[in-house]
Amino acid sequence: MGRNILFISGGRRDGNTIAAVREAAAAASAAGATVEIVEAIKLDGVGRGCVSCFGCQRSTEFRCVVGDDVAALVARLSTFDTVVLATPIYFFSFSTQIKGVIDRFYSQIKYEGEVMRSPLSGLRFALLVTSGDGEAESGYEAVRQSYRHVVGYLGADNAGESYFPHCGPEAAEFRRDPERKRQAAAFGTALAAE
């Protein structure tokens, strides 16, 4: 039985990020994985992020108490083997859509004294990033380090990272570029491997 992989795309509805996600997801599926793609921009509440109400911490459930699509998505993360966070770089950081999802990860942790528990511990996460500039100019390293801190904090595993620099403003350019498509497909195939 193949891996169960969730891709969360945080870019434009028809941008480079979702184009890369679709290539990676198709390859993962072809390699035997069960794949789901969520376009975060379509989720109710995605721009809200965490409102710091601490309702999730007063509850025994690992669930955000804000009743919207993002809360429902984050509550399902532990049902997947691998969760791919896919983001364009917007002004040297994650897109608002992906950051809004990541902020809600707070609902997936509980402290018992100094000990943190999370249903996301041991889960595999992966990072897919697109940017208009190159690595040095875009802020890729800041996004990468932030992602690694989140994964480490949760006690999760980093299943891999794939970066697509110098993406033009139109996703059609991405879809016409065989090297970018090959890179995305190779990433998806690697994520599907047991």
Describe the overall structure.
The chain contains eight helices and seven strands, in the order βαβααβαβββααβαα. With 194 residues, it is α/β, with parallel strands linked by helices. Strand 4 (110-112) and strand 5 (115-117) form a beta hairpin.
Structure, briefly:
With 194 residues, the chain is α/β, with parallel strands linked by helices.
Features:
194 residues; 5-stranded parallel β-sheet; 8 helices; 7 strands; 39% helix; globular
Write the layout of secondary structure elements.
Elements lengths: L3 E6 L6 H15 L3 E6 L15 H4 L10 H8 L5 E7 L7 H8 L6 E3 L2 E3 L6 E7 L4 H4 L1 H15 L2 E8 L6 H6 L1 H15 L2
Helix pairs in contact: 1-8
Please trace the helix and strand order, writing H or E for each element: EHEHHEHEEEHHEHH
Structural class assignment: alpha/beta
Q: Report Rg.
A: 16 Å
| Beta-strand content estimate | 15-25%
- Report the sheet with the most strands, covering strand number, pairing sense and barrel closure: 5 strands, parallel
Instruction: Walk across the major sheet and give the strand order.
Output: 2-1-3-6-7
Provide a count of the helices.
8
Average pLDDT, all residues = 94
The total strand number stands at 7
Shape category = globular
Distance between the termini: 9 Å
Query: In percent, how helical is the residue content?
Result: 25-40%
Contiguous low-pLDDT stretches (5 residues minimum) are: none
